User: Fold this.
Amino acid sequence: MDMNIDFYISSLSGGGAENVLITLAKEFQRKGNHVSITSLEKRPQFYEVPGEIELIKYDHTEKGKLKEHIDDFLAVRKQIKNRQKTDVCISFLSRCNWLVLICSFFLKRKVVVCDRNNPLKEHSKAIFWLSCQLYRSASAIVVQTVQIKNFYPKFLQNKIYIIENPLDEDRLIKQCAEKMVCKENLIISMGRLEKQKDFKTLINAFAQIEKKFPEWNVCIFGKGDMKNELQELINKYGLESRIFLRGRTETPFLELKKAKVFVLSSNYEGFPNVLCEGLYAGLACVSSDCISGPKELITDGVNGFLFPVGDAEALSDKLTLMLSSEELRAKLGKNGKTSVKKLFLPEIIKKWDGILRTI
Assistant:
């Protein structure tokens, strides 16, 4: 079924939601649909968009917040109104979801909104309640886990669909093509250097065990406002030569393949793409048991380990087990790679096709 599909998002910066949107857009286009992506350019573009996908950009960020919001509304409203052949609008992330739904009032457009994080962590209860009222007008709501679905009120449940983030196997393999990958005694983590990702817990945990494992180091990839604060904590422990803040990388899967252990230390998630990729890379993975995602990806002790959110001592205990046993790492890595086959892109696209046919 050929469709005209318009994606909307606040930016095409280096986040997980942006990566998922572009992956879906590419696959829908490859299957013969006409696809566009509209970005409101709230942050600098990081991901490339193939030339065959129509890319529309609106940048009103220099006009002051009130004027910016008004101009965003006027531009998106006009666009949705004029694109008569559009079959469905698919919006990612709360702010853009609200904007697209408001701009679609009285235009009889099919709108699918995608929440990509824990809404009760991202918003106050009052804002979440208002968001739910606005979501009444959506054709479908896509979330990533059962935990997130259960946060929403009963009156929305019949239009909520659970679709995990896809693993684009071809894209990941291409990052390693024709490159020598040498395994290192390395613990790796990735994400924005912000409070949500709680890299302090990882640093504190490693500081507790670093003398037992002098041949092991830690690399953290990502950019964010907490870089200086995290570096100060590393310096406080005197671990400048053991824990490294590497910034953003354009080949994250290649970096994962070089490591032996992956850590997700987040306070909360929507559905952690990087944990999925760590499992697929065959790493021994340990994650905070945060809402939501890790518990639906990791069976504790089988394909990884879980530890309580913010508990550096518990994380250090799990790392001690993993760093002490190559056999354990191999077992966890093998089981982890097998466990994420259900997330391969063709399987996820089938779920999306089902929703779009339904609405």
Summary: The longest helix spans residues 65-82. The longest strand covers residues 4-9.
